Amino acid sequence: MRQVRQGRQRVECSNVTDEPREKAVRLTGEQLGGALGRRATLVYFSTAFCQPCRATRRVLAEVAAMVEGVSHVEIDAEARLDLVRALDITATPTTLVLDAEGRIVRRAAGQPRRADVIAALGRAV
């Protein structure tokens, strides 16, 4: 669902996608610059001046703290253009939910709601 607020367009996280082509992609802790969670990993791409990225960081940290075996990794999109291009990241924040093996099971652009993140984790664990 797209909403326009004060001239800005925002994509709600409830508009997550499953992309079968990404199922084949398997990310490692080395590629991400942080350890994968035992059960799942929340990965999000941010930029320095992205206001929704700050809120996303808080939401993902809260969810990771609530659910055992889940970690979260923040990736600076400007510093990791190789990964941004390989994963076709076109906006920040973009959140990826990885299963225990590092496969992408969900993807969302925009600032996520806590409930949406928890629901997406259900697909990964």
Detailed description of the structure:
- 33% of the residues lie in helices and 27% in strands.
- It contains five helices and six strands; from the N terminus they run E-E-H-H-E-H-E-H-E-E-H.
- It has helices at residues 20-23, 29-32, 51-66, 81-86, 114-124; strands spanning 2-5, 8-11, 40-46, 70-76, 94-99, 104-109.
- Strands 4-3-5-6 form a four-stranded mixed β-sheet, with helices on one face.
List the defining traits of the structure above.
125 residues, alpha+beta, four-stranded mixed sheet, two-stranded antiparallel sheet, 5 helices, disordered N terminus
Number of strands: 6
Mean pLDDT: 84
Q: Uncertain segments of ≥5 residues (pLDDT<50)? A: 1-17
**Strand content of the residues, in percent?**
25-35%
Provide the helix percentage. 25-40%
The helix/strand series, from N terminus to C terminus, equals: EEHHEHEHEEH
| Largest β-sheet summary | 4 strands, mixed
Strand ordering within the main sheet: 4-3-5-6
Rg over CA atoms, rounded to whole Å, is: 13 Å
Structural class: alpha+beta
End-to-end Cα distance: 26 Å
Shape: globular
Helix segment tally: 5
